[in-house]
Amino acid sequence: MPTYILGIESSCDDTSAAVIKDNVILSNIIANQQVHASFGGVVPELASRAHQQNIIPVIHEAIRQAGISKNQLNAVAFTRGPGLLGSLLVGTSFAKAFSFAMDIPLIEIDHMQAHILAHFIQNEEGSKILPSFPFLCLTVSGGHTQIVLVSDYFDMKVIGRTIDDAAGEAFDKAAKIMGLPYPGGPLVDKYGADGNPLAFKFSKPAIPGLDYSFSGLKTSFLYFLRDRLKEDADFIERHKADLCASIQHSIVSALTAKLMLAVKQTGITQVAIAGGVSANSALRKAMNDLQDEGKITAFIPEFRFSTDNAAMIAIAGYFRYLKRDFSDLSMSPYSRSNS
Questions:
Q1: Helix (H/G/I), strand (E/B), else coil: 27
Q2: What phi, psi does 155 have (nearest 5°)?
Q3: How many angstroms separate the CA atoms of 28 and 65, rounded?
Q4: What is the pTM for the complete model shown?
Q5: What count of Cα atoms within 13 Å lies in the side-chain half-sphere of residue 157?
Q6: Residue 269 vs residues 65, 122, 132, 137, 190: alpha-carbon distances, Å
Q7: Which of 85, 224, 267, 277 is the most buried (most CB within 10 A)?
Q8: At CB < 8 A and 24+ separation, what contacts does 220-227 make?
């Protein structure tokens, strides 16, 4: 008998629901929130209100597109954290109610672990090559930048992390400095495609070990533009493509340099990327280049599984279901992870 898991993701500003049949995704619905664009970032109160409006129709559509009845579901998995507490409460409360009403197990999922486990979503033909344990994973997003040693589905150890800003935040801050609208990261990627990544150089932090730092890079970029704008008020507009390509190159180079140091230290050459920044074209190209050079075996997620989505929650829920690792109704969400 197949196992059907409903996954619910509500950690930030996207309401998502997915249904998985064993390890194959049947549906993955995402409702975006456009309301935050005019504020230059996610407004937590507005996000939680939008989740309340979206969650029922999103889940209904996920089950409908999966072509099953809700009575066929074996369990409901949800993001417990980390994330915005108000947003998490919406998903957690619905999952609890659904679990109780349908008399099926409730499965809590860590958001960052789920990003990594998205690599184990299989296609219908069963032909996708999956990572084998152990492997390294660079999980990089607007709120996190970590190098994780993955020994099993739920045996993960963070061996490197940012000591200040996350890489995704660095992308967004650089975009904001240039006057680009929120979210700026994808726009830096877009404009950077037509620019010279070596046109401008910015200071690189000298952080020992496997940890990252991006606050100094952000400050270097800010001061660089401040000085150039004094000389030429149109400097940003005239050099937008090169600026985007150069700051992107600086961030991606920092990410891959530490990642390759982790490969050298651990001897593990299977390397994955995960999280929202794994959708960045320069990072994906850098990973493919390292693989072509014979330095690593790269695992790059599909674009639809890079940013926040419920498919990754569902696949993580499937593996916890196999272990019979269930939650009770007394649990509550958490905004920050202990890892």
A1: strand
A2: -110, 90
A3: 9
A4: 0.92
A5: 9
A6: 38, 22, 11, 11, 30
A7: 277
A8: 221/174, 221/177, 221/247, 222/177, 224/200, 225/177, 225/178
Q: What is the pLDDT of residues 162-175, one digit of tens each?
A: 999 999 999 999 99
Contact of 23 with 315, CB cutoff 8 Å: yes
Question: What does CATH list as the number for 135-301?
Answer: 3.30.420.40
**What residue ranges do the domains of the chain occupy?**
4-126+306-322, 135-301
**Tens digits of per-residue pLDDT, 239-266?**
999 999 999 999 999 999 999 999 999 9
Which tokens in the block code for residue 60?
A: 């209904």
Contact 31, 15 (CB under 8 A): yes
* Element holding 136 (H helix, E strand): strand 135-140
Cα separation, 79 vs 112, whole angstroms = 10
> Taking 50 as the threshold, does the pLDDT of residue 305 lie above it?
yes
* CATH 3.30.420.40 for the 4-126+306-322 domain, yes or no: yes
Domains 4-126+306-322 and 135-301 share a fold: yes
Cα 308-63-115 angle, rounded to 5 deg: 20
